[in-house]
Amino acid sequence: MQLKFQVKGMDFSRAGQAATKIKKALQLAGMDPATMRKAIIIAYEAEMNIVIHAYHGTLTANITPHKVEIIAEDVGPGIPDIPLAMQEGYSTAPPHIREMGFGAGMGLPNIKKSADELDIQSEVNKGTKLWAAVFNN
Amino acid sequence: MQQYFHSVRLDEEKCKGCTNCIKHCPTEAIRVRKGKARIIEERCIDCGECIRICPNQAKLAITDCLEKLKDFKYTVALPAPSFYGQFKPEVTPSRVLSALLALGFHDVFEVALAAEAVSWAIRHYMEVCVDRPRPLISSACPAVVRLIQVRFPSLLEHIIPIESPMEIAGRMAREQACRKTGLEPDEIGTFFITPCPAKVTEVKQPSEGRSSVDGAISMAVVYGALLKRLEMPAPYPVAPRASGVGIGWGRAGGENEAIKAGSLLAVDGIHSVISVLEEIERGGLTDIDYLEAQACTGGCIGGPLVPQNPFVARVRMGNLVKLYSAGEPGDFPRDFDYYRLKTPIPARPALTLAKDPQVALARLEEAERICAELPGLDCGSCGSPSCRALAEDIVQGYARRSYCIFELRERLQQLAEEMVELAQKQPPAMGRDWKQTRDGGGETD
Ligand code: SF4
Ligand code: SF4
Asked: InterPro entries from the entry (chain A) (predicted)?
């Protein structure tokens, strides 16, 4: 089954709502707690990445009994150097976002830690597509 | 399988089926059916929110009564720390404890004393087990533990594997009573004076085999019975052994004040607890070492079975904490294993749509579809807490679409239109144009 949500850049008042809905769905579907936790972290960080960095985008969850896929696609500045962005603490978030307690440069590293498989494609000045999978054992 | 026990029940006589409670339940455990609120047993975490909200006092907590003392040769009262805050300043803890003896208990063991010991154990665990996922979450409030079992199973590994002060108090009290009297352990009855139904459930259905506490009596009941005995002479006067550190556990923030190590966060009120747990679930708050989380606003002094106004109790607790702050830490075992939870706390997957994930997913998809068609007003008239919950109930076979009064109204409207149309079709004898033909004739339109 598929769940799809629109995410707006800079909309902090609704940030995290899509991830919360995905969590609820995973719980109703009876996913393993460990799968749930990993998928929530990925969904939340991916959603926040769109809110912080992009203009707008979508967050999608594909749920099957064996696997949860989280896909985040955005229209935005893109990531020039993906390996660098994967490093803990590396952040391009502007100071006013950091002052709000977001953009600590843990987004992608956290996603990497939680995902069983991960693929990130990005084009500068166009946008980013993140695909992550968690296997449900 | 053992039937699931929980303390919060419905008084059918008093319930008017008003649906006030269904929206406040943190686990969506209540439905109104046939004009009465029903609690879905395995979802209830005994937080008592529905007791507070019910305008008809139709929700109650099953607790033990004082008669149960007769079942034991020797009985020990275990007053919760919050109990001290229920009395006027001139009624000192010593008088309160002595009056418990006048009430019929043979001895008293303060849970506040066990709380001091547990504070030590928590500090010890935090120092030794630095590799455990952070933040560690307190295990003291059973409503929060059940909430995690039901709604946040992935956070179970964050719960600190230490028994609650109540459990430890029961154990210490029994050991002490055995030494004093020479009786067998099961001849001794330990009775917790409880601020809440959640603790009753912890006693009746603990996460480990058996509780060290034999009964839980409502604080409001004991308070009422005690007021009359405050003036009576006690068999012997009891001096409180707990210091301010342990007494403080009875109110929000007190547990953290007692631990005083690492970075600590305290949250109270079930809905605030939920938002903090959500934050932890999505990977946040890893900079916090320990989370004190209490289901009741204000902590245990805000418990559903507490007689005194929680704001008044809070001030009184604060004064007592100050008054007894100089007290020496009590005498308790400095062996961590004494406090350790022996078995892991299991998840309670009471929110899934079906056991089989394939079926659950199919139902989820169906529920999404139905939910999109429902009016989305969350009015509660169907007896489910929200349109979303109704859709989930429908796919599980617990409800029908016609429970939605808006859908029902629409269908009635259609039916009414059809009836009007039918009603306009007058019989020929009442003046409708009629065209005679050989085979009987018919209407002219
Ligand atoms: S006690 Fe709490 S969990 Fe149980 S039915 Fe009432 S509100 Fe729901
Ligand atoms: S906060 Fe205290 S009184 Fe309230 S449910 Fe938890 S343990 Fe019981």
From this structure: HATPase_C_sf, HATPase_dom
